[in-house]
Q: What sequence folds into this?
């Protein structure tokens, strides 16, 4: 990206005053700090929708677009629960990089295949068609399938309404330890906090009134270390099997602490390329490593969001690395910014030509920051507002006790007690 043709100082000042960032940028008063490496971060990313903003620079016609090798995803409770419900999974596990793994039922065709070791052990859920009892004979595989279809599935009772009889049979054992449903719990590192914890909500409303589009707004806390020890955060889920369309915003950001706090952006906005010669088309950008995987009881990889009626399910091995699902419902592009019609919007991407955009505008920038102050990373098209605040014992982000159930559903730690990293390394 070349240097701007116009001075950005006036644009920065105007944005900061309009958003009230000058008056709200004040040093934090952390009190008793948890440890010197624990920080809370809030990031707001918005896109200027006016066409003039894309004409102020001569954008690189062939931009370099890539994801980091060391990465993780933010833990989004709403996304994890939605995937668990939509996939009809037996179980869900989220690892320490924010990657979710689902164990899902095998398709009906696999259940009727007696060569499968789990053919008659996989409960089916919410199937619309039953094999009529009057047509089934003893020994007919349909009889066994009917038994499974009419049997209550043993899965995710937290998400399934229970009848009074079920409730009577699920009385807790008085000898078992009972969950604490009164004491708040501490948010996990890199777990997106509730909207009530967002400081930039007034700025977000102001940006919307000005006609800008918000593409990300979130807050989390984590231990920050050197750049080599702190993972970059992938900001889109475009490589996932449950994605719906190719997102407008892709890329990553990294917040780390060496001698000072730093933020490093590597974001790009997919566009129609109306500012370039007619017919200009770049190669499709890369897609990030998946934040979601799914498999059946037998261990076969499968895509629950893309069933194939004529075969025993589509596996990731069959899809291959060059064929991915259209990405990310959270970052759906504005229809006015997309080519029309959008190729492949309701089907999988099976060819590079299904990339529905023509160009990508890059925002690649590094900035040293002061803790407790609001920073605006200026760009003609992609604006980023960020604040990083030291954490203290009396400022831990607490969540309602009901969040314990979420953690149990996804195999996450129920309790989290942050420790000083230096003292932890000294222990034998």
A:
């Amino acid at each position: 990206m070349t240097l701007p043709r116009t001075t950005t100082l006036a644009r920065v000042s105007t944005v900061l005053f309009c958003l009230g960032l000058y008056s709200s940028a004040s040093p934090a008063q952390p009190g008793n700090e948890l440890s010197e490496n624990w920080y809370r971060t809030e990031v707001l990313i918005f896109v200027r929708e006016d066409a003039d903003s894309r004409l102020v620079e001569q954008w690189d016609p062939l931009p370099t677009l890539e994801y980091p090798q060391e990465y993780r995803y933010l833990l989004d409770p709403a996304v994890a629960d939605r995937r668990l419900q939509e996939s009809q999974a037996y179980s869900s596990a989220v690892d320490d990089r924010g990657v979710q793994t689902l164990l899902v039922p095998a398709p009906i065709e696999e259940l009727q295949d007696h060569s499968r070791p789990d053919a008659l052990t996989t409960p089916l859920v919410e199937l619309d068609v039953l094999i009529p009892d009057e047509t089934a004979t003893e020994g007919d595989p349909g009889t066994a399938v009917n038994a499974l279809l009419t049997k209550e599935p043993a899965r995710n009772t937290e998400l399934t309404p229970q009848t009074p009889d079920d409730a009577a049979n699920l009385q807790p054992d008085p000898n078992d330890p009972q969950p604490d449903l009164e004491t708040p719990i501490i948010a996990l590192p890199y777990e997106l906090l509730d909207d009530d914890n967002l400081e930039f909500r007034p700025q977000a409303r102001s940006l919307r009134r000005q006609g800008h589009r918000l593409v990300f707004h979130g807050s989390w806390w984590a231990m920050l270390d050197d750049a080599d020890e702190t993972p970059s955060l992938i900001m889109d889920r475009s490589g996932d099997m449950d994605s719906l369309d190719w997102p407008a915003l892709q890329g990553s950001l990294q917040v780390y602490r060496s001698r000072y706090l730093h933020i490093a952006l590597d974001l790009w906005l997919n566009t129609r390329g109306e500012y370039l010669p007619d017919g200009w088309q770049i190669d499709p950008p890369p897609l990030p490593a998946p934040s979601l995987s799914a498999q059946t009881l037998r261990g076969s990889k499968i895509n629950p969001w893309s069933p194939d009626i004529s075969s025993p399910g589509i596996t990731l091995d069959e899809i291959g690395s060059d064929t991915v699902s259209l990405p990310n419902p959270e970052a759906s592009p504005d229809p006015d910014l997309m080519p029309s019609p959008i190729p492949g919007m309701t089907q999988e991407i099976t060819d590079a030509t299904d990339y529905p955009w023509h160009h990508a505008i890059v925002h690649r920038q590094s900035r040293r920051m002061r803790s407790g102050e609001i920073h605006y990373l200026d760009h003609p098209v992609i604006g980023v507002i960020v604040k990083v605040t030291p954490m203290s014992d009396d400022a831990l982000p607490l969540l309602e006790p009901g969040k314990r159930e979420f953690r149990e559903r996804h195999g996450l730690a129920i309790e989290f007690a942050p420790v000083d990293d230096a003292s932890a390394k000294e222990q034998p």
Notes: The two ends are 50 Å apart (CA to CA). Residues 139 and 145 are 11 Å apart (CA to CA).
